[in-house]
Amino acid sequence: MKVVRTVAEGLDSPWGLAPLPGGGLLVSSRDEGTITLVDEKSGKKTELGEVPGVSPAGEGGLLGIAVSPDYASDHMVYAYFTSESDNRVVRMLYDPEKPAGEQLGAPDTILRGIPKGTNHNGGRLAFGPDKMLYATTGERYEGELAQDKKSLGGKILRMTPEGEPAPGNPFDDSPVYSYGHRNVQGLAWDDEQRLWASEFGQDTWDELNHIEPGGNYGWPDVEGKEGEKGYVDPVAQWRVADASPSGIAFAEGSVWMAGLRGERLWRIPLKGTEASADPQAFLTEKYGRLRTVVSAGGDRLWLTTSETDGRGSPESGDDKILELEVK
């Protein structure tokens, strides 16, 4: 693994990163509530606009973003954000022909009522190979929400692009896809279309999980690999000081996992639904806190730093987008 280049610098609290089909990277600013277009060749940044209704505080704000799988025809961009009352998912029309700063249409709320807190707001958004929209939520420090299938907190949700419960979901008329999560911030699919998720532990174990429909991932009853009947054990686990994982991506047969507190990028080689070797750490304490990692196609990844999120030690140029080669 090597860093090929620094794609862009000077980003404020970057959180979500979504490549556009025709080129360009959309980046959300958690604290500013804005979405910026980054030219991945020149590094030029163009602010598209501010998302109305975002109420940043603690770990909340404008979090994950995703581009519609039908973007060529509908030009829709999706966002997950913390409002004054809840976390919600919205979609907006992106019109690049309008003046900079005015290119985002009014947000259409497709899902509301996700519990919010100062911390543990989840926030990752991603479209799966099935063209359904997946969202990760946290339990805002109320562990019992994670086991309550009627609550949207502490879950991975699966919905249609219109925000309805997706066909084939495990629980009737519910967007809940898996439960028993503390705070998931990473989603990725492997080349066999299996879903993987990273999860923050409390004091002991961070996790990488293979996600099964209807699976109970144990929180708050279980943390890490405990072999308890009725709960799904993680595929890999880390001490929280070594990881505190946010985004993940799949490339070259491995899941790549960005660590915040751990300030490193983890590689977890896979064989089927198991790890085929011990996880390997890269970039340890070289770029500070790492937030989001996204496939750039083939053996390339985009990786964002997270030094301006209030918990880092920003240096000149922070925050950055890096291009990695992961052969």
Automatic annotation (TrEMBL):
<dbReference type="InterPro" id="IPR011042">
    <property type="entry name" value="6-blade_b-propeller_TolB-like"/>
</dbReference>
<dbReference type="InterPro" id="IPR012938">
    <property type="entry name" value="Glc/Sorbosone_DH"/>
</dbReference>
<feature type="compositionally biased region" description="Basic and acidic residues">
    <location>
        <begin position="308"/>
        <end position="327"/>
    </location>
</feature>
<dbReference type="InterPro" id="IPR011041">
    <property type="entry name" value="Quinoprot_gluc/sorb_DH_b-prop"/>
</dbReference>
<feature type="region of interest" description="Disordered">
    <location>
        <begin position="303"/>
        <end position="327"/>
    </location>
</feature>
<protein>
    <recommendedName>
        <fullName>Glucose/Sorbosone dehydrogenase domain-containing protein</fullName>
    </recommendedName>
</protein>
<feature type="domain" description="Glucose/Sorbosone dehydrogenase">
    <location>
        <begin position="11"/>
        <end position="311"/>
    </location>
</feature>
<dbReference type="Pfam" id="PF07995">
    <property type="entry name" value="GSDH"/>
</dbReference>
